Hints:
The protein has helices at about 5-10, 15-30, 30-35, 70-80, 110-130, 145, 155-170, 175-180, 230-235, 245-255, 280-295, 310-330, 355-365, 400-405, 410-415, 420-425; strands spanning about 40, 45-50, 50-55, 60-65, 85-90, 95, 100-105, 135-140, 200-205, 275-280, 300, 335-340, 375-380, 390-395, 430, 440-445. The protein is α/β, with parallel strands linked by helices. The protein folds into 2 domains: about 5-30 and about 285-445, glycerate kinase, domain 1; about 30-280, Rossmann fold. Strand 11, helix 12 and strand 12 (about 335-340) form a beta-alpha-beta unit. It is globular, with a radius of gyration of 23 Å.
Amino acid sequence: MFIKNFDELVKSDLHRLALQLVEYGLSVADPYAAVRENLRVLNNKIFVGNAEMSIAGRIHVVGFGKASKRMAEAVYSVLGDRIAGGVVITPSDEGYVGNIMIVRGDHPIPGENTLRSSQLLLDYLIDNVREEDLVIVLISGGGSALFEVPEEGVSLKDVAWISRELMKRGADIFELNAVRKRFSKVKGGKLLRFIRSRKVASLIISDVVGDRLDTIASGPTAPDETTFADVYKILVKYGLWSELGKNMRGIIEKGLSSSLEDTPKPGNPIFNNVVNIIVASNRIVLEAMARRAREAGFNTLILTSMLEGEAREVGRVLASIIKSIDLHSLPIQKPAALLAGGETVVTVRGSGTGGRNQELCLSLAVSIRGMNNAVAICIGSDGIDGVSPAAGAIIDGSMYYEAVSKGLDPLAYLNNNDSYTILSKLSRAIITGYTGTNVNDIFIAIIR
């Protein structure tokens, strides 16, 4: 069970059902289960998702990301001694899974461990993989920091600096990745240049809203549609072109003049024998939870798997939909299960302890106060919500008045960004610890 304080949180059958649905969603996102669901062997063939691959040569496993060790364990449980070897980079573990070497990288900022382990992974591919072999690549969130080999003349400090400056100046994830790919030997499909095999299968756990393959871990085995011209415009837009060091500027200038090869684009033959399969994502989790809710007798609606915005404002919007379902059966009739996913943000103005999921829940609880037939949960699938020990929270229409009866002012806590404090006092904070996966945030509301 993922939710450690499950029993403490159950205040009614409706609470129990909501918690069970979230438990089920987290189990679907579990790296081990997700990989096993998409990998099987039949006779002398391997099926990766719906793709069929014959076993002509040896099988190698490489990977990087927060979930990579659990993914490697799942691959080994299916393929066992058929695996010739490999290297997998994790944030903390070292050792072996079968004959797959587990090494450590740095996260969230790449450092010497990342450099050493990344070079070890590349050396393994260069020294061991033959044309007839199959390479299985395991990719999950955190892979951008854990797996990095900078271009010649560029240091990790350079990469960290440009990333930090772009984020500070308001660049989005797509602009950030477009720039980082130009200073990396392995991002933006460039990892494939180190793999001689004609068969590559990437199993991917998405931590990116929208599940864009070119964005998850910076798309090491996916085509990249951005260009050096795009990157130049981004750097100018954020005032960074004049601040680039000589070597970094030189790379962009060579790219602009076509004297340096760009990232592989869609249609490049390098992708002809590559299969990229998302085995776990926010959308996959929401669809599984919706099926389970329908089986329990609820009408279901998935609003979106791309929920974004200020957490407290998103909470108010979700509350308005819950009230519309209750009063007008719109956009769905009761009994209803309303689901959404994505990743909101919190603009911190107070000094409290909390996170985006708990802030959303606290805002929602204020807005649906007095409703006696609704329960809602918002949780970070990785088990970590902001700077708090909680993963998220479960709330209902009675929570606001329960807080007031105990001398607690929900609005004051909300304005101080102190959602964890009040939710924990009211036994509404959900504790999971690190779940070992990350498919963004999960929201569910049940309206009887």
